[in-house]
Amino acid sequence: MLLDGIAKNNFVIVGRAGIDFFTDPGVRAEDAERIGVGLGGSAANIGAGICKLGGRAALVTRVSDDSVGSYCIGQLKKYGVETGHVLSVGGEYRNSLAFYESVVEGHRNVIYRNGAADFQMTEADVRAVDYSRFGALITAGTVFAAEPSCSASFTAFALAKEAGLPIIFDVDYRPYSWTSPEVAAEVLSRAAAESDMIVGNDVEFGFMAGDYDKGLEKARELARTSAELVIYKMGENGAITISRDTEIRTGIYPVEALKPNGAGDSFMSGLMTSIADGHDLEQSVLRGSACASIVVAKPGCAPAMPDTSELEAFLASHPGPTQA
After folding, report:
1. Which of 85, 105, 82, 87 is nearest to 28 (CA)?
2. Strand 229-233 versus strand 36-40 pairing type
3. Strand order across the beta sheet in which 82-89 lies
4. In what order do the strands lie in the sheet with 109-112?
5. Helix (H, G, I), strand (E, B) or coil at 99
6. Which positions ≥6 away from 87 have C-beta within 8 Å?
7. d(Cα 200, Cα 223) in Å, to the nearest integer?
8. What is the largest CA-CA distance in the chain?
9. Looking at residue 1, what is its pLDDT?
């Protein structure tokens, strides 16, 4: 069911959209005289990346009823992401905002999430979606960090499953969004147990396991017991793709990185669209890794994500991935 769903290349994505501010390449925040602006937020980035690579995506979220919310909707439309389920919320709720430096060493990323508009997504919002239109549901862990978004997201899981859609879950643990690590571990573990595919890094799987050294064991356990596919990312050491029967180790495409932001979102976009385009699983993971490398070498997140021609040009010109 998982790969068949992804093959439709049409995704409903539950999660946040935000606005990113970032410095020019190599410029520290205190030295910035101007800043770039772009679409941000994990779910929005994934949707933009999928559309740029030829897939289709619709976002389900809430944005603030102000100029920042309007900016997010306008940017989503620019990238081709469906916005019919991106709803505004008024009052004191505000869109998330990130300000980060386009540097690697000593990189600083400040994210403002007080009164986050996306946490106001309701069960009514997700019940309004026609899940039968899509091939798979994608979400990232932040949607579970507060109510009513948490309950709404689990309802979306149930409704998607009823419609025959596989659930693809990016753990995306952000400590600042949660009331406590204990609550986060419990809720994220529940979401993982309900998912058909889980993508996370070694720290995130270790967090769910309660012990960093047991993260890979946790990933393997999920692949044995509930998930059809688990991808255990290890940064510069590549990734391990785990199913019930096999493990595939893949490397990364080394580049001169400008900043770390957006790598995981671009990886997901490249992975999904590559599977949908008929590449085998190992090649799809590698193409996702190539997308991540492209993004970290350029300013911004959604603006830096490659389209198909950029990805193919990168793969043709790069010496190739590291050995896993």
Report:
1. 105
2. unpaired
3. 82-89, 56-64, 10-14, 136-140, 167-170, 197-201, 229-233, 239-242, 247-250
4. 36-40, 18-22, 96-100, 109-112
5. strand
6. 61, 62, 63, 121, 125
7. 13
8. 54
9. 85
Residue 123 CB-density burial (10 A; 0-12 exposed, 13-18 middle, 19+ buried): middle
Question: CB–CB of 2/228 below 8 Å?
Answer: yes
**Cβ–Cβ under 8 Å, residues 72 and 62:** no
Domain locations in the chain as residue ranges = 2-317
14: buried, middle or exposed (CB in 10 Å: 19+, 13-18, 0-12)?
A: buried
Measured between alpha carbons, how far is 215 from 239 in angstroms, rounded to an integer?
13
What's the CA gap between 299 and 145, in Å, rounded?
28
Residue 115 CA to residue 112 CA, distance in Å, equals: 9
Angstrom distance (rounded) from CA 316 to CA 307 = 14
pLDDT lower than 70: segments of the chain: none
According to DSSP, the residues that pair with 75 across neighbouring strands are none
HSE of 308, CA atoms in CB hemisphere, 13 A:
9
Please report which residue ranges of the chain form alpha helices under DSSP H: 2-7, 42-52, 67-79, 123-127, 149-162, 181-193, 202-209, 215-225, 263-276, 281-296, 308-317
Q: What is the pLDDT of residues 293-324, one digit of tens each?
A: 999 999 999 999 999 999 999 999 999 999 97
- Domain over 2-317 is classified CATH 3.40.50.880: no
Strands 18-22 and 10-14: unpaired
What token pair was written down for 33?
Answer: 């005289």
